[in-house]
Design goal:
- Keywords: Membrane, Transmembrane, Transmembrane helix.
- The protein has 607 residues and is mainly alpha-helical.
- The chain is built from 25 helices and two strands.
- α2 crosses α8, α6 runs antiparallel to α7 and α17 crosses α18.
- The radius of gyration is 26 Å and the shape is globular.
- The chain starts with 13 loop residues before the first helix and ends with a helix.
Length: 607
């Protein structure tokens, strides 16, 4: 089909389909699919009761398993370093294999197909399987942030929001595939993320980035992200409606199949945004070739020494070169905020230390609440169906926190220069309210607590990851954002295992006349979780106070345009006719001749 004469571009050609799959926007779509299956760690509460009853675990042992799950989920240092030296497809395949192996062994133990493993081996299984999610997250998140560096807050919020929804997605899918069988949920967790990783393995990658200005400005460039957001809102609303309906009406297995099919249709409809953007791009290219504009090109400014170092990919990631002496010297001489730090420069900085504290106190506390939600509901006398509702509500509001924190903080930063660290402080303070509702067991307040905890837990992640990318640069982002989240398991271990688990078991033992509470022997009443969550409230408030140090140290950095270097279009065409003194060059003559040749080449490729 000829492209000239104003004829429309055809979307029904192999060339156009290939363009779509190889596009920057398809990387976003594929990453959304991977992220939608990467939140299995947040549904531990749904199958923890089966672990307790079938393997005879007490609450401290459950919380120990939960800690190793969180350890595997958040310590992604290995995946970050692998991403630095290996292609993204290798990172995704490693994650698929680890996920399948780890959770499959847990499923075999739960169903009696293997002998009941010792607790230490179960801890290894769940840590190994959960660590696979760091490979998926690293591969997808880093690729998208590097492909869209000037929209990183929106990108991180969008992708992490689908992680937040994945808990509710898993709940619907396992009811449709396996029925109400919590042990089979573990099997779903084993194969679904692996399948999605394999499905997208060759489409998620970092593409060459050219700084550019888009017709219509930043708003036009970010419009597709808002289309992705609208579809994610539709998916979240659909899941919320299903949660409410399933609480009121008894669904048959066939009904679950129908509703889950609709869920998958909404999820995969994101590919429509990609097709639309590529169709627009091809149409605009055709139009520009038929009506070539006069082009004004300026020689790009010469890079500074710092920028040269940032572009030197041969420098070692840990120290930035210079041998051992140079390494130690460079560690304590970091570049300006926003430039590319080496890994060691970032790790010894005050900013990263504050982020570690926030991760330990803030994320550790909300993780404890999420992992114990089923037991909290049991202790307060809520029915089993309501407890499943709490878990699903956490997933929905986890999504809302991630999406809201990403998009809203980006808007406030662009419009009002509102610093992202201050938004993180506000989230920590709000989460204290949810912890207090659990501590005092206010009647019917667990619904509100699950909403607050889910929202605040979700909001912390995109804020944390965006701050790391903005303060320390993108060169070693795959390693640094994994270091940033690695501290949260420490907080989860202290607050979940040592504080909450032991206090719960002590109270349960007292209630059962001194007999150790294992299996179906549980603690009843507000007193079971009161003291642990008062402690969690205190440390979370302390984390909010410490975060003000980061707000103060970055105040001048966030007052400027932190994305300025990504918005200036380089003079890529200067070689076609620039003057010897590197000044301004007007390239009008011969534009039509060049455009005809380019048009013929494009027509040949597209049609």
């Amino acid at each position: 089909m000829a492209a000239g004469g104003g004829e429309k571009v055809s979307m029904c050609t192999p060339a156009f389909a290939s363009r779509v799959v190889q596009s920057r926007w398809f990387v976003v779509f594929a990453s959304i699919v991977v992220m939608a299956a990467s939140g299995s760690t947040y549904i531990f509460a749904l199958y923890s009761k089966v672990l307790r009853s079938k393997l005879g675990y007490n609450q401290e042992t459950l919380n120990k398993l939960s800690f190793f799950k969180d350890l595997g989920t958040n310590v992604g240092v290995v995946s970050g370093l692998v991403q630095q030296v290996a292609p993204t497809w290798a990172v995704l395949l490693i994650g698929a294999g680890m996920n399948l192996a780890g959770y499959l062994m847990i499923y075999l133990a739960l169903t009696g197909r293997t002998a009941a493993p010792p607790v230490w081996l179960m801890c290894f299984y769940i840590c190994f399987g959960a660590n696979a999610l760091t490979f998926s997250n690293t591969g997808a998140l880093v690729a998208c942030v590097k492909n869209f560096p000037e929209s990183r807050g929106i990108v991180i919020g969008l992708l992490k929001s689908f992680v937040g929804l994945s808990g509710a997605i898993y709940t619907q899918l396992y009811l449709a595939i396996y029925g109400d069988d919590a042990a089979s949920l573990v099997l779903l967790v084993a194969w679904l993320p692996a399948a999605f990783n394999v499905f997208t393995v060759y489409t998620i990658r970092v593409l060459p980035y050219a700084r550019r200005q888009v017709a219509g400005g930043e708003k036009a460039y970010s419009t597709p992200f808002y289309h992705f957001l609208y579809l994610s809102v539709a998916l979240a609303a659909y899941l919320l409606v299903m949660i409410v309906l399933q609480k009121q009406v008894r669904f048959s297995h066939a009904a679950y199949v129908v509703t889950s099919t609709a869920l998958l249709v909404i999820l995969f409809s994101n590919v429509g945004v990609v097709v639309r953007e590529e169709y627009k791009a091809v149409s605009q290219l055709e139009d520009s070739l038929q009506h070539p504009p006069a082009v004004a090109v300026e020689e790009p400014p010469k890079p500074t020494a710092t920028q040269k170092d940032a572009d030197d990919e041969s420098s070692p990631p840990l120290c930035g070169g210079g041998g051992m002496v140079g390494c130690i010297s460079n560690m304590f001489r970091p570049p300006a905020l926003g430039e590319d730090y080496s890994i060691m420069q970032a790790l010894v900085s005050v900013e990263m230390l504050v982020l570690f504290v926030i991760s330990v106190f803030g994320i550790g506390g909300t993780l404890t609440a999420i992992d114990n939600m089923a037991q909290i509901g049991q202790s307060l006398g809520y029915p089993a169906k309501s407890i499943n509702t709490f878990v699903s509500l956490i997933s929905i509001w986890n999504y809302a926190g991630r999406a809201g924190a990403g998009y809203i903080s980006e808007f406030l930063l662009a419009r009002y220069r509102f610093p992202r660290p201050l938004a993180l402080t506000a989230v920590l303070l709000v989460s204290c309210v949810g912890h207090l509702l659990i501590a005092f067991g206010v009647p019917r307040s667990l619904y509100a607590a699950s909403v607050i905890i889910g929202f605040c837990f979700g909001a912390q992640w995109p804020l944390l990851f965006a701050i790391i990318s903005e303060v320390f640069g993108l060169k070693y982002y795959s390693s640094l954002f994994n270091f940033g989240s690695a501290a949260s398991p420490a907080g989860a271990y202290v607050l979940n295992v040592i504080v909450t688990g032991r206090m719960y078991d002590a109270e349960a033992t007292r209630q059962h006349g001194g007999v150790t509470a294992v299996g179906d022997k549980i603690c009843k009443g507000v007193v079971c979780f009161k003291n642990p969550f008062l402690i969690i409230t205190g440390v979370t408030f302390a984390g909010a106070i410490v975060s003000l140090v980061l707000v103060w140290r970055t105040r001048n950095f966030y007052r400027g345009d932190i994305y300025a270097k990504f918005k200036v279009a380089p003079a890529a065409a200067a070689a076609d006719g620039s003057s010897s003194d590197g000044g301004r060059v007007e390239m009008v003559q011969g534009a039509e001749d060049k455009s005809k040749k380019k048009k013929e080449a494009v027509n040949e490729d597209l049609y």
